[in-house]
Amino acid sequence: MAPVRPILLEPRKRPRQARAAATVDAIFEATIQVLLAVGPNRLTTTRVAERAGVSVGSLYQYFPHKQALFYALNERYLDIVAGKIEAACRAAHAASIERMVEDLVTTYWEAKTERADVTRALYRSVVEIDNAPLIEAFSRRVDAATTVMFASSPDAVFDDLETVNLTLLTAIFGTVRSVFERDLPVGEAAAVHRQLVLMCRAYLNAVRCDDRSAGEGAVPRCGADPSTLGAHTAPWMPT
């Protein structure tokens, strides 16, 4: 189901030919550059048109104002990221939980950091628009893809997969956004990436039930073994 776009953010028209598509691509790239240079408040359609090398009239053929431009830019970006996650989930179907986590975290991380300038520009642009419909559509696609992937795991089942999936994605998305908001150096960001994979694996191992190899009719046990947790936490518990 496509997101319900606010009427005022509708583009005037969509490119149908290669030349028109190239013009829109140039406008999007110019928007990113101007956003990074002056921020959303000082960005104007005139500045974007000048940077893109097109007339203001050409820009207005597609976008009636800068808010519609921001919305379309975010829509394209989220569609690309969702597509990459869906592809990664299909590729990891029926793989181990460890591989699923590694692929999911790394795919999202790389999608956001491949062009860090784009990600930063879009974070700045959302102050000007209501992007809730876009986030809702993105979340539905990602939730569906990751739920199907985790349900296919041959070595783990989850008592409440919907909640587990939501918790995991919230942790991943929130961590990656924090890396950008804090503008972490490359080395520190890479360390956070590695730790995020470990954290997500530990979480899934803590909430998983007995694996599927336990046999039909076996009573599943879900969650971490308390005795195992105690063995790890005892040295740090107060006496």
Automatic annotation (TrEMBL):
<dbReference type="GO" id="GO:0000976">
    <property type="term" value="F:transcription cis-regulatory region binding"/>
</dbReference>
<dbReference type="InterPro" id="IPR041669">
    <property type="entry name" value="TetR_C_15"/>
</dbReference>
<dbReference type="Pfam" id="PF00440">
    <property type="entry name" value="TetR_N"/>
</dbReference>
<dbReference type="InterPro" id="IPR009057">
    <property type="entry name" value="Homeodomain-like_sf"/>
</dbReference>
<feature type="DNA-binding region" description="H-T-H motif">
    <location>
        <begin position="44"/>
        <end position="63"/>
    </location>
</feature>
<protein>
    <submittedName>
        <fullName>TetR/AcrR family transcriptional regulator</fullName>
    </submittedName>
</protein>
<dbReference type="Pfam" id="PF17918">
    <property type="entry name" value="TetR_C_15"/>
</dbReference>
<keyword id="KW-0238">DNA-binding</keyword>
<feature type="domain" description="HTH tetR-type">
    <location>
        <begin position="21"/>
        <end position="81"/>
    </location>
</feature>
<dbReference type="InterPro" id="IPR001647">
    <property type="entry name" value="HTH_TetR"/>
</dbReference>
<dbReference type="GO" id="GO:0003700">
    <property type="term" value="F:DNA-binding transcription factor activity"/>
</dbReference>
<dbReference type="InterPro" id="IPR050109">
    <property type="entry name" value="HTH-type_TetR-like_transc_reg"/>
</dbReference>
